[in-house]
Amino acid sequence: MTPAAPPQGFRHLAGHLDAALQARLVREVLAGVAASGGFFRPHMPRTGRPFSVLMGNLGPLGWVSDRHGYRYQERHPLTGRPWSPMPDALLALWRELAGDPRPPECCLVNWYRADSRLGLHRDEDEEVFDAPILTISLGDDAIFRIGGLRRRDPTWRVRLKSGDVVVMGGTSRLAYHGIDRILPDTSTLVPDGGRLALTLRRVRAA
Ligand code: MD6
Ligand code: FE
Questions:
Q1: Helices (H) and strands (E) in the chain — how many of each?
Q2: Deepest of 86, 91, 113, 189, by most Cβ within 10 A of its Cβ?
Q3: Which ligand 1 atom is at minimum distance from the Cα of 110?
C-alpha cells in the first residue's frame, strides 16, 4: 500500500540548483574529500558487511561506520586527517532552506555507482533532532523511498535528479528512508560517473 502523502515536514525541491552551481559543488566537494584522504568504504557494525556506497565527509564532524558502531568523529578513519571545511555554497543553501540559525556540522558525501543502494534507515546518530536534514543530489538519477516512523509503515517513492534538494524536518526528520537504486548513465556531471548525495546535518545542540 502507498500512503497518500509522505510524512509532514518532507519537501522535495526539484531542480533547485542550476547547472553552474551543480558543477561548482561537484568540483569543490571532490577536492575537499580528496584533501582529507579520499572516499572510504564503511562497514556495518554487527555483521562487518561492506556498504555498497563510498563515503566522505566535510565540516567539523564526519559520520563513520565500522565494527565499533555508527558515530561522528573529527578525523578521517584511514588517514587521521581532519575533514575539509564545507564549501560556502553549502552553508548558503542551509541558511536558505533549513530555518535554523545554527550551522550544519556534518556534510556526509555518499558516492553511488551503478550497483550501489542504501537500505531503509533512520538518521538517528545525532544528539538533536530539532534541525532538519538537507540532501542535495548531483549526477545520476536515484529512486528514493520514504516511509513513516516505524520500519513497517507504508513507503512513498520519489525519483531524485541532479540539482534536487530534499528537506526532512518536522515529523519526517526521523522517518525511515533509503535509496532503492541508481539509474546509471542518466547524467555526466560526476567525472567518474554515478551519483553524489550531500547530506547536511546539525549534530550537537549548541
Ligand atoms: C541519499 N539520503 O539521498 C540518501 N537522510 O542518497 C539520505 O539518507 C537522507 O536524503 C536523511 C535525510 C535526507 C536524506
Ligand atoms: Fe539518511
A1: 2, 12
A2: 86
A3: 6
| Contacts with 47 (C-beta within 8 Å, 6 or more apart), sequence order | none
Structural domain boundaries, residue 136: 10-37+54-197
Ligand 2 midpoint to CA 19 (Å): 25
The mean per-residue pLDDT over the stretch 67-77 comes to: 97
Domain count, the chain: 1
Rounded to an integer, the average pLDDT of 64-79 is 97
pTM: 0.97
- Which alpha helices (H) appear in 98-193, and where do they start and end? none
Three-state DSSP at 82 gives strand
Q: Residue 89 domain-assigned? A: yes
Say which ligand is closest to the CA of 12: 1
Q: pLDDT (tens digit, 9 = 90+) per residue, 25-66?
A: 999 999 999 999 999 999 999 999 999 999 999 999 999 999
Q: Whose CA is nearest to atom 3 of ligand 1?
A: 197
Residue 206 domain flag = no
Query: CATH code at 123?
Result: 2.60.120.590
